[in-house]
Amino acid sequence: MAVKHFEAEVRREPSGAVLDLRGEINGFAQEALDAAYAEAEKENPGAILLNFEEVDYINSTGIALIVGLLARARAAKRDLSAYGLSEHYVEIFNITRLSDFVNVFPDERSAMGDRRQQENLKPEA
Questions:
Q1: Which end of the chain is more exposed for a tag (fewer CB within 10 A), N or C?
Q2: 101 lies in a domain?
């Protein structure tokens, strides 16, 4: 089986930054994942959304990298959400309790819709 190298691209959306992830998330993904997350943080978005639609494989090191992103998001008081996970990885997020801290959605539309709804519910300052 050929290893699919990891790539990440950042997209800006009105409700936050989206990290489009591709390939395998393992120890070799750390540098690219950290760089993409740092790029996403630059404009201080209220939320970062991880797009897993084109992720083929996540090993235990990859889960640890995602936990690291969660720690960074929580330290910055930023929402971290995910979508596009296969049923298997949704189950992994549930077993590891990542889903207690990372909102998991089936697709980008539902994730963005939830984010817009949260924005509308915030009290005005």
A1: C
A2: yes
CA-nearest of 2, 5, 49 to 27 is: 5
Task: State the chain's mean pLDDT as an integer.
Answer: 90
pLDDT tens for each residue of 1-25: 555 789 999 999 988 999 999 999 9
Handedness of CA 34, 93, 90, 72 (dihedral sign): negative
Query: Do 21 and 8 meet the contact criterion of CB atoms below 8 Å apart?
Result: yes
Q: What is the pTM of this model?
A: 0.88
Instruction: Say which CATH number the domain at 14 has.
Output: 3.30.750.24
Alpha-carbon gap, residue 93 to 122, rounded angstroms: 27
What is the domain extent for residue 83?
A: 7-121
Asked whether residue 2 is assigned to any structural domain, the reply reads: no
Quote the number of domains for the chain. Answer: 1
CA distances from 99 to 11, 54, 87 (A): 23, 19, 13
